[in-house]
Structures are given as C-alpha cells and as structure tokens.
Amino acid sequence: MNDDLRYVYAVCRPPAAPLHADLTGVGGAPPRQLTHEGLVAVVSPVPERDFGREPLRAHLEDLRWLAETARAHQNVVAALATVTCPLPLRLATVFHDDSGVRAMLEDESERLHRILDRIDGHVEWGVKVWLGAASADGDGSGDREGSAGGSAAAASSHAPRSGRDYLRRRRAGNAAREEALARADVFARRLHGDLSRYAADARLHPVQSGPLTDAGSGRNILNSAYLVPRTWSEEFLELIGRTEGTRPGLRVEVTGPWAAYSFTDDPDAREEPHGGEGAARQDAGGAP
Where is the secretion signal located (predicted)? Predict the structure, then answer.
C-alpha cells in the first residue's frame, strides 16, 4: 500500500447519498471520498508500477489498457453523477498521496467552486449529425456504376462511352456531393443554433474521421455537446426528435446524459483545470 498512488476521478460537493458499496474503479479498487474544506475528491489507490510517470506513458500507447482504464473511470463518474453533480478530472490524473490531493483542492479551491457552481443541476448531451455514405459520395453515377451487382450487359450499358462522357459523369457526381454537403451543413448549423437555446453552454468538437468513424456511418457533419439543465432535458430531446426524418440522407445521433465532461473549463479564466475532456467518455464507448 505504501507504493500506491492516488487516482482521482472527479471533484464534487458532498454527495447527497453514498456511492454503491459494490462499485469498483480503476484496477478493481473501490473509490472513496477525500474531503477538504467543502470539496470532495473521489479517489482510489493505484500501483505506482502502472501509474508512475514512465509506466503510465507506456500504458497510454496501449489501446486495450487505455479502453479498460477509461471504462472504469467512466463507471465511477457515472455512479457519482447519480448522487451529485461531479466535475470529472482528466483520465489518469494521479497524485503521490492524500496530501497531494488535498493540496490540489486547496490551491484550486476558488476555481473548482466556480466550475461546480456553473455545472450544478446540469447534464451533458452529445449530438452528432451524419451524412449517409451514399449522399456523401454523390449520386453514384460516376465510374462506380455497374461495379456491384447486375449483369455484365447492364454494367456495359452504364459504362462511359468516351473520355468526355467519363469527365461529364465525374463532374456531375462531384456537384451532387457538394450540394449534399452544403445542405447537410445548413441543417447542422440550424440544429446547433436551436439546441443551444436550451443549453447553458455548448461546445463544437472536431468532427470525427479516420479510425474513430465506422465506415458505414457516413460523414460526420456535426459533433457537439450541450450543457443542459436537467429540468430542460425532455424539451431538448423532443426538439431533436422533431428533426427525425425531415432531411433524407441525414441521421442525428444523441448520447447522454453524461457528467459535464466538455464543460470543465473555468467560466472566468477559460483555462482547463486538472479536469477532464471527453476522452474517458469516448474511450468508454460514448460520444465526444
């Protein structure tokens, strides 16, 4: 135990109820509360052989280890969100001992209180807009026609008759793709504006691409987060529901409610504290 470090999941005000006795965190250890002058840090012991500076740097390159740690981190934060309004800390935030955690609470007391005041009574909802793969690729009338399914004769009938015909089809496909993207962008901007009116704050995250995106999902047009009062969540979701089916080729994905992962910045300084971003939530299977 003497070699154990302190893993900190979140900071909050004293919860209204205890955490479930069977809850476990990173490495299977149960979390506990460390209180200092009105602030509570939720912590658990982790071995220095895994969370010391050098071992941790190596572990963060291991996607399996990272995903497992992120799930455990998120499980504790999610449980905490049922009894209070937590400020999630960054994945793998560790201190040498309890005194180090208390020093952090002391040094950042004013800023932490400001953030907790701001997110109190709120939850985070994530919203993504996807343009279907067929729409994102154009109308499919370019050089892909006849490539899958159908007879050889059908494929031949759709083949370009000349280089000029090929270029014409390519231009038409490009124009259709650009038009679909423009319509999707207008829809996403309007939706973001409408949703922001139900939120105390909103964040536009970079759109997802590459290995984070399922090839069948299409193209990510909007990747946003909203800090919504709990009492307004029903109206917020109803607004999204009214958009379903109104724009063929577009899909709206909603995740949450989450702890306020995207809103841990200081409302005055706009500087992120030790606290978190969407990383733990995303790696745990949610949306950033």
Answer: none
> With contact defined as beta carbons under 8 Å apart, do 130 and 251 qualify?
yes
β partners of residue 127: 224, 254
Token digits of residue 241? 């529901």
Give the tokens for residue 192: 């973001």
Tell me what the pLDDT averaged over the chain comes to: 82
CA 5 centroid distance within chain: 27
Q: How far apart are CA 65 and CA 59, in angstroms?
A: 6
Give the C-alpha separation, 165 to 147, whole Å: 17
The per-residue pLDDT for range 216-271, each reduced to its tens digit, is 678 999 999 999 999 999 999 999 999 877 777 899 999 999 999 999 987 666 54
Task: Characterize the bridge pairing of strands 4-12 and 250-258.
Answer: unpaired
| β-sheet with 201-204: strand ranges across | 201-204, 219-229, 122-131, 250-258
For the purposes of burial, counting CB atoms within 10 Å of the CB of 79, is it exposed (0-12), middle (13-18) or buried (19 or more)?
Answer: middle
Say if CB 126 and CB 224 are below 8 A apart.
Answer: yes
DSSP 95-152: ESSHHHHHHHHHHTHHHHHHHHHHHTTEEEEEEEEEE-HHHHT-SS-STTTTSSSS-H
d(CA 116, CA 10): 11
